[in-house]
Amino acid sequence: MLELSEINVAYGRAQILRDLSLTVNAGEILCLLGRNGAGKTTTMKAIMGLLPLMSGRITLDGQTISELPAHKVAGTGIGYIPQGRRLFADLTVAQNLEIGLMVRNSGGAVRDGVLDLFPRLRERLHQRAETLSGGEQQMLATARALCLEPRVLLLDEPTEGLQPSMIEAIRQVIVVMRDRGVAILLVEQRIDAILSVADRVAFIENGRNLETLPADALRADHAILERHLGV
Q: What is the fold, at CATH topology level, of the domain defined by 2-87+149-229?
């Protein structure tokens, strides 16, 4: 279980997160929803140790990780697929995956299992990442994170700019990982994508908690989305 307890985060003098608390359980998908600038990406970066906490605490299965340097957070079992993918463009698909494997000293069996989820990447192992299509790059970014054998997976706008077939491929992998017991925190703007995978939805505004609801409540009453997001 990943737990954020009343965390406060700032960029310089501008405070972004204010006493934000979230819990993501093993085997569930929690979608983080809010308007632009609400603090969604900042939350992801704080979990990964890329932004220091002013106060509060982040734990993974009871272990405090908010005191760890950023390069050690991934080693605890948290995979992060940032917005924009952040691949090593000049490296091949295989080399990008190898970097993911190195974080936790995973071997070929892990790589083969990941490639089973993304057969298209198996056909492109020796192709440079920069030559892949946008959807294939998203697949590679996701596959690299899965090479960590994560207990928690953070995805920031994974379907942005993708065609429907690629969106469905990413969605299926997210559901598979949830069913394998991975705790998934998803930032996504596509309401249809959220409603197709989410177990719970947490709304934030100006870096503060609004409410957290079962996704079924949103499926039954779209007025909730209009109240919080204006959509």
A: Rossmann fold (3.40.50)
